[in-house]
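Project outcomes to date are best conveyed with an example. Our students and postdoctoral researchers have been running inverse folding experiments weekly, and each run begins with a structure described purely in tokens. The record below, which covers 170 residues, was selected by the lab manager from last quarter's runs and is presented without edits.
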């Protein structure tokens, strides 16, 4: 099945405006979330593994408060990133507390528009900058690890020991 997706992707990459990640997600239907979990401390680092059992598995778009590194241990992943998005005026209300779209805040977050797409293979390290919205889409069976530094909750500086402050890793 992996070869099937790879062949189709290679044939269609010349189509203007069509991204490999978008095409792959369309081919497999609804985005299938990659398996995360089993994260933990390794000395002064916090490591979160991501398992992609086959082509089309996705870690949905998100951003982090601090820079971190992702190491691709097995397979190939498409890394998609976009510029940070800012809230926009809610098109459905004028600060109506009953508005379900914005919950009365008057603003909504637009969906990210992925402007960069790069394929990374096994053995690659990626530095993902703070605030950069990004997602991963697998081209086949893959495994990657996100590596974070422990942080001091008061200053945000790198800390040697884990102190339980989860924003350092999310």
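After processing, the design step wrote out the following sequence:
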């Amino acid at each position: 099945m992996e070869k099937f997706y790879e062949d189709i992707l290679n044939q269609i990459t010349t189509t203007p405006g069509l991204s490999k990640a978008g095409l792959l997600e369309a081919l497999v239907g609804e985005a299938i979330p990659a398996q995360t979990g089993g994260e933990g401390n390794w000395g002064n680092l916090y490591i979160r593994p991501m398992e992609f059992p086959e082509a089309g598995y996705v870690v949905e778009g998100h951003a982090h408060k601090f820079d971190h590194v992702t190491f691709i241990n097995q397979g190939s992943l498409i890394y998609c990133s976009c510029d940070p998005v800012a809230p926009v005026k809610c098109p459905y209300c004028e600060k109506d507390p009953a508005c379900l779209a914005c919950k009365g805040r008057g603003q909504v977050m637009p969906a990210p528009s992925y402007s960069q797409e790069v394929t990374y293979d096994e053995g690659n390290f990626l530095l993902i900058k703070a605030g950069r919205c990004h997602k991963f889409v697998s081209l086949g069976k893959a495994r990657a690890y996100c590596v974070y530094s422990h942080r001091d909750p008061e200053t945000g500086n790198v800390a040697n020991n884990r102190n339980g402050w989860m924003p350092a890793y999310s």
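Residues 2-12 form the longest helix (11 residues). The helical segments are 2-12, 20-28. The training component of this project remains on track.
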